[in-house]
Amino acid sequence: MQEIIITLLGSSIILVIAKVILTLVFWMAGLFGIFNFKIIVQEMIDANLPVPKLFAVATIGTQLLGSLLIITNFAGFGWLGAGWLAIFLLLTIPIGHPFWKFDEPKRTHEFHIVLEHITVVGGLMLAGILSVLSAV
């Protein structure tokens, strides 16, 4: 059984599947943004960001290009996509999920979203490490 699991974990196909799953939330959000641009612009307005259309384009671009870099490790730049998405996620905490500003029960809800973001950052860190190791 152990040999089967080790073989699966060493498979390049399983690695690509894992990267697709890790980035699912980003490329789905990016595709949603392309087809629902006005909603993304409204999210930027709601977050009080200047030039909301520019931030909407940057958000969609970050989600799609960061995911693409992780999945393909194009030119060995999977680490860049992972870092780009990790920074993006960390920036969304004070901008979009400042749980410390809310009363209960919204505070706890937003805090759980923050914990999910931080957990995904850990996965992105692993993806960055794997991209560097596979490029060596």
Automatic annotation (TrEMBL):
The chain crosses the membrane at residues 12-34, 54-75, 81-100, 112-133. It is a multi-pass membrane protein. It comes from the Bacteria. Pfam families: DoxX (PF07681). Keywords: Membrane, Transmembrane, Transmembrane helix. It is found in: Membrane. The keyword Membrane applies. The keyword Membrane applies. This is Multidrug efflux RND transporter inhibitory subunit MexG. It comes from Psychrobacter aestuarii. The lineage of its organism: Bacteria, Pseudomonadati, Pseudomonadota, Gammaproteobacteria, Moraxellales.
